[in-house]
Amino acid sequence: MGIPESVRVEPGSFRDPANRVFHAGAEVLRALDETAAADWRALAGTEFFPALMAAGRICRTEQVEPGGPLPESGRPWAAVLRHERIPFVAHPYEWSFSMLRDAALLHLEILRAALPAGFTTKDGSAYNLQWRGADPVFIDVGSFTPVRDGEPWAGYRQFCQTLLYPLLLQAHLGLDFQPLLRARVDGIEPEQMRRIFGGTRRLLPGVPTHVHLHGAMQRRNSGATTADVRSQLRAAGYSRELALATVRGLEKLVRRLDHRPGASHWADYQRTCGYTGQDRAAKEQFVATAVTGEPELVLDLGANDGRYARLAARHARYVVAVEQDPAVVDELYRALRAEREQRILPLVMDLADPSPGGGWRGVERAGFTPRAARADVTLALALVHHLAIGRNVPLPEVVDCLAGWCAPGGRLVVEFVDPADPMAARLLANKPDGLFPDYHRERFERLLAERGRVERRLELPSGTRTLYQVVVGG
Amino acid sequence: MHLAYLDAGSGSLIVQAVVGGVAGAAVAAKLYWRRLVARFRRQPTDHG
């Protein structure tokens, strides 16, 4: 195997110095130091690991012989693994409640399978998980390490902060967890949770132990080192069976957590959005033609119930359906999960406030724009008026932004809703008269022509909506 | 020797014993009992 010239360090993989992820062309490689390589050999020889990998729970991984050296970080690499490529990396603050819950359950399932085989995971982060469509997959193969008897799970605190606590907040209090996880790469601290879950809330399932007791124990033991506590626990008889019991208890708790929000405005959008049957048929035909040719990646921005994402998935290899309303995304996810759909990934994101870069130097967790910039086709249907009128974004900026969420030479399929359209009129009614003099079709068409080549144009039968297919930069 | 790269948190380790059912609570109780005994055992040498 030859290492291509363009080896790039994955900026999110520096925390565990024993291994490091690199991107070499389209390949995802993981370099291991001597200890990590020994762990890998032991792991590959177990029964549970190949079984979980074959079942698709852990990303497909094989050891490879590098044809050239990978950049070192102070220690020589002893082995190199090649991972299956995840089609579109998504961060936990872009997932819906059920997605976070299924990701948490998968992490626990893997730990429950690993412990009897003498392995554990070094950490317990939500970032250990990614998606193949609506199917969660554990990606941090470097996290497996032999378990030492008498030691609790080192990843428990991280599991609480990035998985369990967000789930408790949403399930018990109906609080959207996404903004909290986006703001803090390490998740929500027990101390913050204790303040939120005061009064009678402290009795809700999982809260007395994993929140209050956990926080109190942290404060009382802040002077003790983890090495001391580990040896004290071992001496007191902490066993692997107890570690398993903890994992089973966490699984039971997470399974109990549920969140079914009431109907939101967007949840009913397809019925209330004012399309005629003729409009819809014409729009579907237009979109179907735009996504032919087996594009690698299609983005559906403002995906709502996923109607057009599903249509795109008939032709595309992978579709990312981005929608602002967490309840709508959750419903779409649950439907896709039930269908075992592995090519449509639903994500929660406000496109007027897309995910910025996060973590160390703002690059540890890539922002939405660099991830979206390789889309072969980008659908922006019934979206422009929400950004331009609903959020006051100047029309040229909207067009610039949409063109940037598409690869150069890629196709942008965009719908313009005339100010006379009932949906646009409803948005305009909330703003002072004359606030958007530039919001009209001729101006929009000029802006599109400045940024690409308009290949097709279709006015829908109702006369207030127009669809465009544009080759970006073409 | 495998060293965890992550600070697992001392309190986060102990609380896992407590949430591990009756047997786990017994381990936590034993840990605290030993800490208590160790404190009393140390005291005479402190003064003498």
Total domain modules of chain A: 3
Tally of individual helices of chain B: 2
Averaged pLDDT of chain A: 94
Strand proportion of chain A, as a percent range, falls in: 15-25%
Report the span from N to C terminus of chain B. 39 Å
Our Rg estimate of chain A from Cα atoms comes to: 24 Å
Oligomer class: heterodimer
Strand order of the largest sheet of chain A: 12-11-10-13-14-16-15
Mind summarizing the main beta sheet of chain A?
7 strands, mixed
Number of distinct beta strands of chain B: 0
Can you write the helix and strand succession of chain B as a string?
HH
| CATH classification class of the largest domain in chain A | Alpha Beta
Q: Kindly report the average pLDDT value of chain B.
A: 82
Classification by helices and strands of chain B: mainly alpha
Strand segment count of chain A: 16
Transmembrane segments (chain B): 12-33
Keywords (chain B): Membrane, Transmembrane, Transmembrane helix
Keywords (chain A): Methyltransferase, Transferase
Organism (chain A): Micromonospora mirobrigensis
